[in-house]
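can u do me a favor
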């Protein structure tokens, strides 16, 4: 592809940081770059404790462990998401309960959340699709009414806000991703944001293989020992080095994405006004990080449009296959038609490249290619 869908924005700064780690001979986790990332997330985004993880999937798994998710629990989440949102909780024995999405943001519909709460509901997991916040006020209110914890899957929501608050800092726990396809990358990587302070000590232990090594390291105990279940939820210092530079460059990267996002919006606006396609909406009181730019088109023409764009060298793509109609999701008894908006948008979405490597000429190429296809219909 001349214009790939994703392309990490790597500068000499990331390269220098990785070389620094290699030269230090200290590649294991919890080094200075890990601490730099955690401190930055805590102070710049506003959470009492951030722990770097090897991925967002692992951060979600830690969240499920911390909330003592157990056999027979139900966890509410959108079907329009990546499988990790569900599997992290299923590993603890929970059943995912899929909710439909709002058509204007493709985020979980609070009305469906309220309807699907049962005495077994053990967590609500909103996903901030494309870097645009879910309806957090309503979700937090529903959760508070039933005393249910909220875990934000903010894999795509790093450096975006809802009513001025950073995504990932609003629920009891929040999860970030630095996967190579996200806006801020470490190859693989993530963060668990622990907004409920009562969970901090246990989170540190779970991350350190179920030991109280973190307290030992701070000089709070004479020795360290096995205190809980846990795993190795610690990224290598190489990952942390890349993530720390990316986080420090977060506004530069966001602003570059914004330029392309706005150019694509402007270039396709009249087609949207004519009803040929739909553009994404960013409701009031939300600041996006411009992670994904998507259009919604006629479902009969969607795959043809993707092929047309690909033939022009543009890495357009669709996603997600809704979880409730996937091979795994159907084992819970879901059937096509159960979540109509999710099923409709999943057949109509086309994502276009908005990474910082997209330049002025690329933008025009993308706009011309989409217009060429639509106008030929
Ligand atoms: C990317 C993504 C994940 C998984 O992130 P990893 O860091 O690759 O584990 C989870 N949920 C959503 C919504 C994602 O977009």
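np, heres the sequence
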């Amino acid at each position: 592809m001349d214009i790939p869908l994703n392309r990490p924005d790597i500068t000499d700064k990331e390269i220098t940081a990785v070389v620094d780690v290699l030269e230090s001979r200290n590649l294991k986790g919890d080094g200075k770059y890990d601490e730099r990332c955690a401190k930055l997330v805590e102070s710049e985004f506003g959470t009492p404790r951030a722990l770097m993880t090897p991925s967002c999937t692992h951060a979600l798994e830690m969240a499920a462990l911390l909330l003592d998710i157990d056999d027979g629990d139900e966890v509410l989440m959108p079907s329009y998401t990546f499988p990790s949102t569900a599997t992290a909780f299923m590993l603890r024995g929970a059943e995912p309960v899929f909710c439909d999405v709002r058509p204007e943001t493709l985020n979980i519909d609070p009305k469906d959340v309220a309807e699907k709460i049962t005495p077994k509901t053990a967590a609500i997991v909103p996903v901030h699709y494309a870097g645009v916040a879910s309806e957090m006020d309503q979700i937090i209110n529903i959760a508070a009414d039933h005393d249910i914890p909220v875990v934000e899957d903010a894999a795509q929501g790093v450096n975006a806000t809802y009513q001025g608050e950073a995504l990932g800092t609003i629920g009891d726990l929040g999860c970030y991703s630095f996967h190579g396809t996200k806006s801020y990358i470490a190859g693989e990587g993530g963060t668990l944001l622990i907004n409920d302070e009562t969970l901090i000590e246990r989170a540190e232990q779970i991350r350190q293989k179920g030991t109280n090594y973190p307290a030992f390291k701070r000089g709070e105990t004479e020795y360290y020992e096995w205190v809980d279940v846990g795993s190795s939820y610690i990224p290598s210092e190489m990952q942390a080095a890349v993530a720390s530079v990316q986080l420090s460059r977060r506004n530069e990267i966001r602003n570059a994405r914004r330029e392309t996002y706005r150019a694509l919006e402007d270039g396709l606006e009249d087609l949207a006004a004519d009803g040929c396609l739909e553009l994404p909406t960013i409701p009031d009181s939300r600041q996006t990080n411009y992670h994904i730019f998507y259009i919604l088109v006629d479902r009969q023409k969607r795959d043809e449009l993707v092929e047309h764009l690909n033939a022009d060298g543009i890495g357009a793509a669709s996603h997600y296959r809704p979880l409730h109609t996937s091979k795994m999701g159907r084992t819970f008894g879901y059937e096509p038609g159960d979540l109509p908006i999710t099923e409709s948008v999943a057949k109509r979405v086309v994502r276009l490249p908005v990474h910082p490597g997209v330049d002025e000429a690329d933008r025009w190429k993308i706009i011309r290619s989409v217009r060429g296809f639509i106008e030929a219909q």
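Residues 250-273 form the longest helix (24 residues). hope that helps!!
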